[in-house]
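Propose amino acids for all 409 sites.
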């Protein structure tokens, strides 16, 4: 390094060190002021009070523990199925000359659906009718001859053998006429099959055969499918461990209510009753299949629709019930914040049994009439003073009762 450069470096270096010391000192002072002073301010009750951090009652929403009957539901998933499903097929061979139903529309039992060309079957009926008339005429003549032979036999003019032969002829023609009558009834039945009628009331699907086509009694596809919608069924499942509870509900002799809800469980579609329970548990899924029946007067349930189900299996009498929002979970189990008459908060350990529709049954820890906090718990401590606002009471279904005061914000 040249002597001039070395001399310049010696003069600049003290200035650089001094500048660095000033910067470090400034940072240390700033950090002390904005952290230590802020912490001191946070610990100062006067400062905290001036900022609203700890003084004054804490606003909370409370509800009273109630003594009520609590319904026990089993929730599940189900599929709507028709009460009856019929695939309409032809029972005779022939050409379709008329389709009388409208696709996708309701039909009533006995309504004409399809007409098949009846002429071959009408001709067969006329033939057996003529055959019966012929045999009846022969029988009439044979009876006249029998009467003559009987009269002659009494006078010993005609032999008894001739009388017996004529009697056999009369009996043969009588049996033949009975056979003719059977043939007539069969021909009439075949002719009636050319007019296909709805076997039940329901909704018709898309037709599978058009007018002009030839149908056969052996066809497997059918002509149209009709499903009965009123009543209608819902097939759903429940866990296998609930089978004794379900059987107990059925043994009580009263109808076991079932609700069908939308797939998201937010809207009740229909109310029905449990019709039957399957005779075995599905080992693959560990569930039992059940079928419920619904009147479905408004046709809100449709075959193939997926629904949520609620099966009422029991009703707990006179139990203590609180809103689910009051139940808190801690390291030692469940608890609730209880508000005393002087608006102070205490923590009460509780034991919860059944829970449903936003309500829980408290088996231990609370008594009816006690106030529990349902909103605003995050700011509470033991002994906190609160400003309680009563929440609207809950109905038996867990929804706010009508004409209740609005919940405090």
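Proposal:
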């Amino acid at each position: 390094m040249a002597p001039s450069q070395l001399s310049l470096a010696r003069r600049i270096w003290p200035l650089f060190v001094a500048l660095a010391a000033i910067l470090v000192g400034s940072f240390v002072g700033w950090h002390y002021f904005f952290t230590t002073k802020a912490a001191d301010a946070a610990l100062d009750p006067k400062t905290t009070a001036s900022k609203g951090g700890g003084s004054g009652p804490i606003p909370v929403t409370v509800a009273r523990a109630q003594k009520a009957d609590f319904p026990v539901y089993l929730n599940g998933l189900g599929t709507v199925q028709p009460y009856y499903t019929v695939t309409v097929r032809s029972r005779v061979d022939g050409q379709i000359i008329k389709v009388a139903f409208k696709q996708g529309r309701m039909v009533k039992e006995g309504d004409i659906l399809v007409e098949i060309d009846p002429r071959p079957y009408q001709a067969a009926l006329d033939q057996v009718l003529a055959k019966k008339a012929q045999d009846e005429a022969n029988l009439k003549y044979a009876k006249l001859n029998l009467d003559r032979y009987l009269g002659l036999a009494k006078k010993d003019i005609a032999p008894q053998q001739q009388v017996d032969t004529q009697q056999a002829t009369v009996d043969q023609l009588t049996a033949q006429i009975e056979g003719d009558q059977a043939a007539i009834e069969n021909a009439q039945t075949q002719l009636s099959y050319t007019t296909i009628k709805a076997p039940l009331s329901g909704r018709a699907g898309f037709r599978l055969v058009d007018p002009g086509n030839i149908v056969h009694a052996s066809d497997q596809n059918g002509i149209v499918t009709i499903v009965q919608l009123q009543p209608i069924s819902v097939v759903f499942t429940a866990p296998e461990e609930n089978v004794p509870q379900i059987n107990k509900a059925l043994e009580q002799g009263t109808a076991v209510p079932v609700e069908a809800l939308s797939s998201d469980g937010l809207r009740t579609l229909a109310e029905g009753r449990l019709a039957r329970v399957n005779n075995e548990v599905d080992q693959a899924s560990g569930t039992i299949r059940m079928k419920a029946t619904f009147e479905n007067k408004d046709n809100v349930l449709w075959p193939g629709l997926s629904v949520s189900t609620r099966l009422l299996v029991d009703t707990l009498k006179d139990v203590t019930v609180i809103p689910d929002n009051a139940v808190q979970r801690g390291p030692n189990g469940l608890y609730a914040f209880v508000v005393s008459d002087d608006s102070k908060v205490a923590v009460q350990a509780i034991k919860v049994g059944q829970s449903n529709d936003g309500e829980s049954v408290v088996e231990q820890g609370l008594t009816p009439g006690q106030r529990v906090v349902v909103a605003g718990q995050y700011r509470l401590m033991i002994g906190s003073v609160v400003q309680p606002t009563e929440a609207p009471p809950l109905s038996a279904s867990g929804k706010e009762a009508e004409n209740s005061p609005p919940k405090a914000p």
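The longest helix spans residues 3-43. The CA atoms of residues 176 and 328 lie 91 Å apart.
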